[in-house]
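Consider this today:
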Amino acid sequence: MIVAKEEAGSFCYTVSVIKITTVIFTITIAVLAVMHYLSLQFHLYWLYPWFDLLMHAWGGAAVALGWFTLRDFLPRLRVEWLSLVPTLSFVFFIALLWEVFEAVSGISQNNPDFLSDTIGDLVFGLGGGFIGYLMAKRLHDNL
């Protein structure tokens, strides 16, 4: 959006730009939320056990895109923080918090394969985070 305002014979322009990483992050989160809601309504997590892994991968990608979106709102954030290791560390931290939430809320209590399920969730979250990192890096490098 560009706004022009005339002041004493001169023009003042204000430019507001929404970056593509922010738009893609917002769409990714919205799709994740809708998919999660529908999965709960139609019991997809229980009907299709692989669906949980897909959601963890999608969530990892969303977290990585969100990490890059921080740069859009915090321009002083050092660009080194957007490299692979800090991004995947952040994705792993959020995935770990999510697994703690699942354990505390009792979601995983009835699962006899709790440990392998948790490890699978973390691995797929990191895999999705890597894909999200590649997408965000490519978008940021093309700006």
User: Anything to note?
Assistant: Residues 114-141 form the longest helix (28 residues).
